[in-house]
Give the backbone structure.
Amino acid sequence: MLRFAPSPTGDMRTEQLRIAIFNYIVAKQKETNFIVRIEDTDKERNITGKDTEILQILEKFAITHDSVFHQSEHLNIHQTLAIRLLEEGKAFVCTCTPEALESDKTPSRYNGKCFDVDKEELKRLKSQKLPFVIRLKKPEDDIVIYDLYKGESITPADEVDSFVILRADATPTENFASACDDMLSGIDFIIRSEEHLHETPKQEYIKKQLGYKEETTYAHLPIILNEEGQKMSESDNAFTVKWLFEEGYIPDAIANYLILPGNTTPTDIFTLPEAIKWFDISKLSGSPVKFDIEELRLLNRKHLERIDDKRLSSLFGFADADIGKLAKLYMKEAATINELDARIKAIFSPKDFDGKWGEQMRILEKIIAEAPMFATFEAFESHLMKESGLSGEHFSKPLRVLLTGAEQGPELSDIYPYIKSYLLEVAS
């Protein structure tokens, strides 16, 4: 069983999408369930609507899930499990105030003041409405975990403090909620960022104290670096999936790109369903990968070229295979939907007759409006030259601007077959 566990506290990060893709692929390969768990226990940071946005993004990538739930739905379960640990003597009530802990000589570690507080104290604290937290007693044995990339790691018992599992407002800490939900859902394979590696020993210890005996395989993915080789941050354009969409990158290309780095693939161009057939999570490089926007542009162009012509035209408001073919003529100079859209719009938008070639464009516009339909560009061009008396660049330049809205681009002889049925609309 695998899961993807995002928090609705901001736009989905590109790195999070990569994690979702890998979890989905492995779940499909293992023919096991894939769960989406919205980690919304941090109420102050949650942003309304971000949970829905996360699911919509997954849908765009055709990443289907077997079930989805919000972590807050399990609040009662988390509280019950925390109380159970308290009753079993594995946890204890702590009434230390944050101020008291901060004034301690070792504020980063719990001072042990409440170790011997009787669990019956809980009833008194509740009745008097006094604030308290529940802490899990620190481990006596070392904690051993195995990661596909890091290998076996041992966390000495004395490095793990008596940490909080239930806050003063009776909500679970992130580590406790995650460990409980992984246990309850039967998650036995966890793929996530190496940024969470430091949390893993605590979560394993929590599950052990709760009596969970099933082994969990971990794969802590190396982080994605920006083009300068630094950890990606909000200041980097490609930090979020939203930015990639806004720039005109399509899901197939984005998924292709996120799977490719650090991987050995039979081909550079592939779709997510194709990757499921050969992807091997264990052979992924354990080194950080650098985000290369030029590589993504190349892949985006390749995937746009593979789109059915009529479907491609729909991205620009048409339902005409010829417009899709027209867009593909511009692939040498454009790599995103936005860039192609700008070129298609330039063709079908009103032209500027106040520029350098405005006078000649007016002449050609009138002739085109009165001309019959010509099957070939050669016949069309010959007719215009004869009727206008224009030649050389005084003919070719204004004609190109009139038909495409730009002075440069693909050959007009290549463009003409796809716009000839729109000439009256184009040449105006």
Notes: The first strand starts at residue 2 and ends at 4. The chain has a mean pLDDT of 93.
